[in-house]
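Input structure tokens:
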């Protein structure tokens, strides 16, 4: 959201930011303003995501855990999965030429 507001100040507008997650429970809690018995301990400052969804600043999507490229930054991956996620994110490795 901070980067989005910076871009707005520069005159660059964006649509809603997609957030993909592999935890259906967290997507449900973020998308529904219902307070369950098990979620009453969550501090009010963490409800910012709900506000962003309500104001259409962001959208939540489910993605299967083995297809989530964010795992590249969070877990130790095997070589094949690492290369696949790197390609999905558009990251390439260039060797400098002399």
């Amino acid at each position: 959201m901070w980067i989005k507001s910076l871009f707005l100040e520069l005159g660059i507008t964006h649509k809603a930011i997609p957030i993909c997650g592999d935890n259906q429970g967290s997507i449900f809690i973020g998308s529904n303003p219902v307070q369950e018995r098990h979620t009453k301990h969550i501090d009010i400052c963490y409800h910012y995501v709900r506000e962003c969804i309500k104001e259409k600043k962001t959208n939540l999507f489910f993605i299967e855990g083995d297809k989530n490229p964010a795992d590249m930054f969070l877990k130790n991956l095997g070589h094949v999965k690492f290369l696949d996620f790197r390609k999905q994110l558009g990251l390439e490795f260039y060797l400098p030429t002399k």
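Helices lie at 2-9, 24-31, 48-54, 71-74, 79-88. The longest helix spans residues 79-88.
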